[in-house]
């Protein structure tokens, strides 16, 4: 707990120093917009960490069977994963609504009464995500910087700020990757 608190403080200090550097620099329009994007990324990262820590503190996954993860992108929170019961899924959602800084929540928690988290599924999901990302980067016409890829239990989530045509193409590319059981699109426009 102390290590998590220390790392959160360090992250906030880093964010503050980056903001100070950005504000103190002789700013042109491009440097100020890139500075604000760095600040937004750090804010998203800090918020994501706070949300996931709050979920784990309230409902430790070793006592309450779930594999729920929060992903924050440009201030929007996506909850993905599985919970053993609807009550647990609802309670996790309530915890997230109480985290400071959470605004919009896209709830994709699925209830699975036969849920059984394993380490091997985490490894498989990471491999699927890496494969999808690399295929998207190699596919002409898909702006991979506008599509974030997250995989959980073989389900690929595409968080997209790209056009609907680009996103649909990305979904078709992701769907043919070995191990993908489904592709879900979450548009952030």
Short descriptors:
three-stranded mixed beta sheet, 2 domains, Histidine-containing Protein, Chain: A, signal, 189 residues, GMP Synthetase, Chain A, domain 3, Lipoprotein_DolP, Transpt-assoc_nodulatn_dom_bac, alpha/beta, disordered N terminus, 51% helix
Query: How many β-strand runs?
Result: 6
Question: Spans with pLDDT under 50 lasting ≥5 residues?
Answer: 1-33
**How many alpha or pi helices?**
5
Assembly of the depicted chains: single chain
Largest sheet: 3 strands, mixed
Identify the strand order in the major beta sheet: 1-2-3
Organism: Psittacicella hinzii
Domain BON: 43-113, 124-189
InterPro entries: BON_dom, Lipoprotein_DolP, Transpt-assoc_nodulatn_dom_bac
Signal peptide: 1-20
Question: Could you outline the blueprint of secondary structure elements for this entry?
Answer:
Elements: H1 2-24, H2 29-58, E1 66-73, E2 76-83, H3 86-97, E3 104-111, H4 119-138, E4 147-152, E5 155-160, H5 164-175, E6 182-187
Parallel strand pairs: 2-3, 5-6
Antiparallel strand pairs: 1-2, 4-5
Keywords: Signal
Protein name: BON domain-containing protein
Signal peptide: 1-20
Structure, explained:
It is a single chain. With 189 residues, this protein is an alpha/beta fold. It has 2 domains: 44-111, Histidine-containing Protein, Chain: A (2-Layer Sandwich); 121-187, GMP Synthetase, Chain A, domain 3 (2-Layer Sandwich). The chain has helices at 2-24, 29-58, 86-97, 119-138, 164-175; strands at residues 66-73, 76-83, 104-111, 147-152, 155-160, 182-187. The strands form 2 sheets. A 3-stranded mixed β-sheet has the order 1-2-3. Strand 4 (147-152) and strand 5 (155-160) form a beta hairpin. It is globular and about 45 Å long. The N and C termini lie far apart (36 Å). Mean pLDDT is 80; it is low at 1-33.
């Amino acid at each position: 707990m102390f290590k998590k608190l220390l790392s959160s403080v360090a992250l906030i200090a880093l964010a503050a120093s980056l903001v100070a550097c950005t504000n103190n620099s002789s700013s042109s329009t491009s440097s100020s917009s890139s500075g604000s994007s760095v600040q937004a990324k750090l804010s998203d990262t800090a918020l994501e960490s706070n949300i996931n820590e709050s979920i784990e503190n309230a409902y430790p996954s070793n006592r309450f069977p779930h594999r729920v993860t929060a992903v924050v992108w440009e201030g929007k929170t996506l909850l993905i994963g599985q919970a053993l019961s609807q009550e647990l899924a609802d309670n996790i959602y309530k915890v997230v609504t109480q985290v400071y800084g959470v605004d919009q929540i896209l709830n994709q928690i699925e209830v699975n009464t036969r849920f059984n988290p394993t380490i091997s599924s985490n490894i498989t999901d990471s491999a699927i995500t890496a494969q999808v990302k690399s295929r998207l980067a190699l596919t002409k016409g898909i702006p991979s910087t506008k599509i974030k890829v997250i995989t959980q239990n073989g389900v690929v989530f595409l968080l997209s700020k790209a056009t609907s045509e680009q996103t649909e193409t990305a979904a078709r590319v992701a769907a043919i990757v070995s191990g993908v059981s489904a592709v879900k699109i979450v548009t952030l426009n």
